[in-house]
């Protein structure tokens, strides 16, 4: 393509030159960090810190989809640094698309939306999870054993 490319590691290699950046770009270059997803922004922070340390100038972040809570430490760090990640779609848009094309059935879709919009309410076993399992069972869908054990533990 003629477009310079480099691979950025969160941790330096354990052997060799211990570089975090490998590829055909040179220190001082302006770079766009491209990644598949962003859920906490912590890895993007690590990547950018490594790029900074090795002399690169990160000018943009591009992700396929993101679901970072705006008040997460990683998102706060990115905002303070002036980054506004470019994303192709959000968690909610992903769920909408998966529902539209039949990958998330209509009877389960409201649970996905509620989980996305009120994640903290789903962090512990409780009413929401029990309702979700009841719908899975009503429509004869599999319930993961780990979920059953987790719900039984309370």
Number of helices: 6
Percent of residues in helices: 25-40%
Quaternary state of this entry equals: single chain
Percent in strands: 15-25%
Strand order of the largest sheet: 3-4-5
Mean pLDDT, nearest integer? 88
Instruction: Look at the helices and sheets and give the structural class.
Output: alpha/beta
> How far apart, in Å, are the first and last alpha carbons?
55 Å
Order of helices and strands: EEEHEHEHHHH
Overall radius of gyration = 20 Å
Largest sheet: 3 strands, parallel
Poorly predicted ranges? none
DSSP strand count: 5
Large-scale geometry = elongated
Tell me what you see in this structure.
Helices cover 38% and strands 19% of the residues. It contains 6 helices and 5 strands; from the N terminus they run E-E-E-H-E-H-E-H-H-H-H. It has helices at residues 42-53, 73-80, 91-100, 109-117, 127-138, 145-152; strands at 6-8, 21-23, 30-38, 57-66, 86-90. Strands 3-4-5 form a 3-stranded parallel sheet. Strands 1-2 form a two-stranded antiparallel sheet. Helix 1 links the parallel strand 3 (30-38) and strand 4 (57-66). Helix 3 runs antiparallel to helix 4 (109-117).
Topology:
Layout: E1 6-8, E2 21-23, E3 30-38, H1 42-53, E4 57-66, H2 73-80, E5 86-90, H3 91-100, H4 109-117, H5 127-138, H6 145-152
Helix pairs in contact: 1-2, 3-4
């Amino acid at each position: 393509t003629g477009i310079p490319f480099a691979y950025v590691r969160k941790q330096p290699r354990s052997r060799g030159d211990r570089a975090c950046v490998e590829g055909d770009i040179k220190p001082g270059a302006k770079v766009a960090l491209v990644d598949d997803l962003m859920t906490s922004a912590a890895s993007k922070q690590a990547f950018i810190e490594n790029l900074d340390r090795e002399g690169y100038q990160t000018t943009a972040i591009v992700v396929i989809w993101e679901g970072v809570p705006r008040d997460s430490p990683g998102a706060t760090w990115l905002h303070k640094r002036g980054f506004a990640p470019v994303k192709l779609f959000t968690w909610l848009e992903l769920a909408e698309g998966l529902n539209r094309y039949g990958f998330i059935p209509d009877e389960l879709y409201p649970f996905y939306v509620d989980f996305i919009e009120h994640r903290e309410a789903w962090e512990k076993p409780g009413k929401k999870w029990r309702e979700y399992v009841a719908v899975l069972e009503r429509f004869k869908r599999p319930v993961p054993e780990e979920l059953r054990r987790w719900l039984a533990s309370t």
